[in-house]
Give the backbone structure.
Amino acid sequence: MKKILVTGGAGFLGSHLCERLVDKGMEVLCVDNFYTGSKSNISGLIGRQNFELMRHDVTFPLYVEVDEIFNLACPASPVHYQYDPVQTTKTSVHGAINMLGLAKRLNAKILQASTSEVYGDPEIHPQPESYWGKVNPIGIRSCYDEGKRCAETLFFDYWRQHNLEIKVVRIFNTYGPRMHPNDGRVVSNFIVQALQGQDITIYGDGSQTRSFCYVDDLVEAMLRVMDTPKEFTGPVNIGNPTEFTMLELCEKILKKTASKSKVVFKPLPEDDPKQRRPDITIAQQALKWKPSVTLDDGLDLTVNYFKKILKL
Ligand SMILES: NC(=O)c1ccc[n+]([C@@H]2O[C@H](COP(=O)([O-])OP(=O)(O)OC[C@H]3O[C@@H](n4cnc5c(N)ncnc54)[C@H](O)[C@@H]3O)[C@@H](O)[C@H]2O)c1
């Protein structure tokens, strides 16, 4: 049985990934400092024979024995990563150094959960992996964007310098059950506000677009990336290329929740990208993967989750 380390395993994406790996019969070691993750995300796994939980901060070295590492530890929503920006950069950069060092010692395969934020506010649309991005190095989002860019650099240097087997996945907006209700991300924001009858806040005029990938599709892609041959390092974009404006998303959610919430418009936050859509040609070809869950189906599952946790 393969031993697999998932850092950030008690978070939104990490908990779904741990679940899939445990169900596949892998021995899973979930490492998390519970900065944004929670035990409730993995409550269904605690007690399973092939699942182990360890409280640990990845900015410190970790000595364990595993065959593969999925490095997901890092707060992902602007509210959380801007709360303690220095810690965010440390988590990305020191976390990457520590996990790469571990992978080198064990000669283990390692996958980095990178992000579409490495493209910044892009001048090219949709974004292919070959695009280098337009990122502000000194803005309020830089702790996350530049931290993740530096982590990618480290991954590719460990690959060139130490011949380590690396996989870099650039994740675009992903949503689904176990998103944090107060993380300020647009899908969870709109759903929580609609369910609680609060005003729905749209930043800007609502014409900015995003593409949303359902969590199960993302996890399937990450597993396929880990199983690619050694030559396949990525970076590879994973996301759903179907684009929606914020107004369209809001209308869908208002309808699904039968909400009477009012829509209010607020100024766009600093450095907010105006559009984002992945070019997934590489994923389609190399992984034989494309998203299969429609926004309508994914939103139904997510709305049901929030109804349950908000006890509505
Ligand atoms: N969800 C998305 O749409 C999205 C998009 C792009 C990239 N990503 C990346 O995927 C990964 C997971 O994102 P998520 O949405 O599940 O976010 P999340 O905040 O729910 O999960 C992150 C997890 O990492 C843990 N963590 C944070 N700092 C840590 C540290 N120093 N040591 C150990 N654990 C730490 C948190 O407690 C949490 O459990 C992140 O690396 C994120 O950058 C996510």
Q: What stands out?
A: The first helix runs from residue 12 to 23. Residues 33 and 47 are 19 Å apart (CA to CA). The chain is about 35% helix and 15% strand. The first strand starts at residue 3 and ends at 7.
